[in-house]
Amino acid sequence: MNRARFLTLLLVSSALISAPRFALAQGDAPEEQEQPESEASENEARLEFEAGTRAANEERWLDAYRHFERAYDRSGRPVALYNVAIALRSMGRFVESRDAFARLRAEHSDFQVDTEPLLHEVEESIATVTLIGLAEDAYASVNGRRQEGSRFELDPGPIAIRVERPGYQAWRWQGELEPGESQRLEIEMSRELELEEEPVEVVEPGANGLAIALAISGTLILGGGVALGIITSNRRADIEVQYDCLEDGCDPGFEDDLAAARRTATASTALIAVGGAALGTAFLAWLLDWGQPSQESASLALPVRVHASPFGGGLDLQLQF
């Protein structure tokens, strides 16, 4: 049986007596032997203490710590606080164990068990880390928890330290601390790289943008007009064949279909005129240099493939600036 378990059971044996109420360890001051404020609190404390005892016997130290802590909160008995310190020590949580022993000695000075050897042993197991050169506006975190100051008392084991400071890159250190080890770490932090943002020149659309828009629109309109003209021409020839107008005149209904074909031809002519005007305006805008030309718009090729109709072929148009 290890020493921690032996000491725990020693206090358990002295605390639990045959009386039905939660008893004190030998040596508790007579003025502390008064009943708790309520019988319910007394019973809860006793049950928690007994559960902690069973957990300690099975070396389930975390459960034992929690039960003994609740027993102390409900009763204020020094024997429960003593067992809290023992359970923390058995888990390797030496900083908290040291604080519990210190509280026991401060608040229960007449407690008969000599805690000096255990307190000394726990204090000797605490590791320390000192950060050298920690700036006033910097702060450190140990295992994800922010710490105050530049010297930390820590439990042995793996630790990760991160130091942050406004305007500087984070400083990190990882290592394994042995019981009682003392580490002095020099902090060297580098300033964050400040990337100068180049101003973005915003070019508002000028004549080039207008010229390109007009060129595209004019090309499409012109192509549509030419295609419509081809369709009209083919349609007129079909009408003459349909109504047998080649030798002896035309059959009835020829004039109506011919008028429709003429209207289509007029629309084609109008589209060609509008498209040509748009292209001419675009070309004039380009020549007058209305705005700064961009590299992307230095050359513009607009291929247009218009399929006229089943009556004719297709028409290829390409505009090159």
In short:
This protein has helices spanning 3-15, 39-57, 61-75, 78-90, 94-107, 116-125, 207-242, 254-288; strands at 127-132, 139-142, 145-147, 151-154, 157-164, 171-177, 182-186, 301-307, 314-320. Helices cover 48% and strands 16% of the residues.
Structure description:
The protein has 321 residues and is α+β, with helices and mostly antiparallel strands. The chain has 3 domains: 3-125, Alpha Horseshoe (Serine Threonine Protein Phosphatase 5, Tetratricopeptide repeat); 127-186, Sandwich (Immunoglobulin-like), CATH 2.60.40.1120; 207-320, no CATH class. The protein is built from 8 helices and 9 strands. The protein has helices at residues 3-15, 39-57, 61-75, 78-90, 94-107, 116-125, 207-242, 254-288, and strands spanning 127-132, 139-142, 145-147, 151-154, 157-164, 171-177, 182-186, 301-307, 314-320. The strands form 3 sheets. The protein has a 4-stranded antiparallel sheet, with no helix packed on it. A hairpin with a 2-residue loop joins strand 2 (139-142) and strand 3 (145-147). Helix 4 (78-90) runs antiparallel to helix 5. The longest helix is centred in the C-terminal third of the chain and has 36 residues, at 207-242. The chain is elongated. The chain starts with a helix and ends with a strand. 24% of the residues are buried.
